[in-house]
Amino acid sequence: MIKKLWNNLTYQTLESLFWAQGFRRIGGIDEAGRGALAGPIFVGLVIFPPDYTNSQIKDSKVLTPNQREVLYEVIKREALAFSVSMATVEEINSLGLTKALFLAINRALSEVHEIDLLLIDGPTPVPNYRGIQRSIVKGDKLSISIAGGSILAKVTRDRYMQQLAEKYPEYRFDKHKGYATAEHLRLLSALGPTPEHRTCFKCFRVIGNKDV
Questions:
Q1: CATH topology classification for 2-167
Q2: What pTM does this model have?
Q3: Are 69 and 175 in contact, with CB atoms under 8 Å apart?
């Protein structure tokens, strides 16, 4: 019965299960930019009030940019608490992607206190976290708190990449946001990486290491 219920969870019901168990301040955390070749990785953390519902808040990947921008303001206004943090390209290149991600997560956690339960998108829990946590595969499709975190992270990162596009207009970061699109790979092959590229990634051994 429990397994069947879990398999049929929707955005609104995952938190409802935990609220019913007495957890009040449930934090949902998600990242944006993990798979990109350039730019920082961002993390969003959101705590909604108990019994909060909003059918428009979904995984950021299924929303349009305009929808994300509107919901970004809604989340900031209606959440009990939220934070957005990042790990820089320098930190990614120095520490590796996974350690840099957890660095960004811990920065977000340091800004939000009194979390009864932490929900993390993905299979891996936060190392050395002393509170109660649950890592959830496809959590951004099951948890409104995680979905809220994904929106905050995505909007903040997209704005950052827009700024990079102004600094490096020839790379068109505003179009591909640093991801490995055909256009981005073509530009990398022709121009080489910028200081904003994650040159620790194996693909840069193939692309080469031209300096801009």
A1: Nucleotidyltransferase; domain 5 (3.30.420)
A2: 0.91
A3: no
The Cα 156–Cα 185 span in angstroms is 24
Cβ atoms within 10 Å of 163's Cβ, excluding its own = 12
Q: How far apart are CA 64 and CA 151, in angstroms?
A: 11
Amino acid letter, residue 197: H
Q: pLDDT (tens digit, 0 to 9) for every residue of the chain, 212 residues total?
A: 434 544 555 555 689 999 999 999 999 999 999 999 999 999 999 999 999 999 999 999 999 999 999 999 999 999 999 999 999 999 999 999 999 999 999 999 999 989 999 999 999 999 999 999 999 999 999 999 999 999 999 999 999 999 999 999 999 999 999 999 999 999 999 999 999 999 999 888 776 554 44
Residues constituting the chain: 212
Assigned token pair, 138: 């496809």
* Cβ contacts of 190 within 8 Å, gap of 6 or more: none
94 phi, psi to nearest 5 deg: -85, -45
List the one residue out of 57, 50, 47, 54 whose CA is nearest residue 21: 50
Burial 8-17 (b: 16+ CB within 10 A, else e): ebebbebbee
Nearest Cα residue to 82 out of 131, 160, 155, 17: 155
Q: Are strands 26-32 and 41-47 parallel, antiparallel or unpaired?
A: antiparallel
Q: Which residue has the tokens 């290149």?
A: 93
Closest Cα to residue 141, out of 11, 5, 4?
Answer: 11
